Amino acid sequence: MRRVPVLIHPHVNAHTENPIDDIGGHICLGCLHNLDVAELLGRSPVKTTLNLVGPLIRGRSVLITGAGGTIGAELARQVSAYAPARVCFLDRDESALHATELSIAHSGLLTSEPYVLCDIRDREALADIFTRYRPDIVFHAAALKHVPMLERFPEEGWKTNVVGTAHVLGEALRMGVTTFVNISTDKAADPSTVLGQTKRLGEMLTAHAAEEGTGRYVSVRFGNVLGSRGSVLETFAYQIAHRLPVTVTDPEVTRFFMTINEACRLVLEAATIGHDGHALVLEMGEAVRIADIATRLIDRAGSSSPIVYTGLRPGEKMREVLFSQAENPRPTQHPAIRAVAVPPIDPRDIAPSYAHMPMMKERTSCAHM
């Protein structure tokens, strides 16, 4: 069987016009063959030109939160290739920062200036970092993202996804940041989970910052990022490699998927074409059945692992949507990216903790748009 590379572990050539085009490598899936991502997605990956990204980043100071995560680390690699004057790669996970440094500097000493250990929940520590690095551009990728964990521990999701985001936005406004991109999720459209509700509030806080600041403040909504840390691809691959049953919640459950390549392109594109306060969404084709992905992986591996259906978890939808019914998607300069206006919310109006979240549900539902 033909082995096809999957865009997971990038090695960037800093001398290319669009460094992201050179992402390559293979996902480590034990006994599995390398996968045709386009076949898994049921569509060809979306391409963007990124012609304006180099001029935007070159010679500027750039700060990336969540720089140890899958998307944050890839953004760190791409930004580094565009010759910024200064960078700050911020995360609360020291081991994740170690991995990011290895992939960029090919060393893991953790002594160089760009790698910063800081929790966005800590406003005072964050303020010190913003004052030291004085960023022109901020990519906000730090978040808690796993639906079942946040259903069990909603206060943790609130502290990071809402309070932490408010802290990052507040510091960006204080420092006069010119471009701010907040990474959201399709689960913020008609949110039914703690993750969706907290990320929707992150979009609304970003829209408020757009009204308050002089720079461009935008959000991007991701589908599920295929191959990201903790994704279903990683879970299925582990189960198949260890000859375990492959667990799927429901035979008919579907999700929108995008590749790491597409996700990073969307973030960088949003930094140049996003309309102030809006959320940008990549056209990801038809939603994909999770069971179909599991079946294809099992077939590629020549495995006999059975699929076991476990039932939807609390708050999970059978089908996600990219836009709420009340939203009116509008075209952008890119034919595969649409945008929606987001109603702003003042950080002074958000509840002090998730215990008070029920009073916010009507405001996050978009019903008033």
TrEMBL record:
InterPro entries xref list: NAD(P)-bd_dom_sf, Polysac_CapD-like, Polysaccharide_Synthase-Rel
Question: Origin, by domain of life?
Answer: Bacteria
Mind telling me which Pfam families this protein's record contains?
Answer: Polysacc_synt_2
Question: In what residue span(s) does the Polysaccharide biosynthesis protein CapD-like domain sit?
Answer: 62-340
Listed PANTHER family: POLYSACCHARIDE BIOSYNTHESIS PROTEIN EPSC-RELATED, UDP-N-ACETYLGLUCOSAMINE 4,6-DEHYDRATASE
* Family statement: Belongs to the polysaccharide synthase family.
Name this protein carries in UniProt: Polysaccharide biosynthesis protein
Protein's organism: Nanchangia anserum
Q: Lineage of the source organism?
A: Bacteria, Bacillati, Actinomycetota, Actinomycetes, Actinomycetales
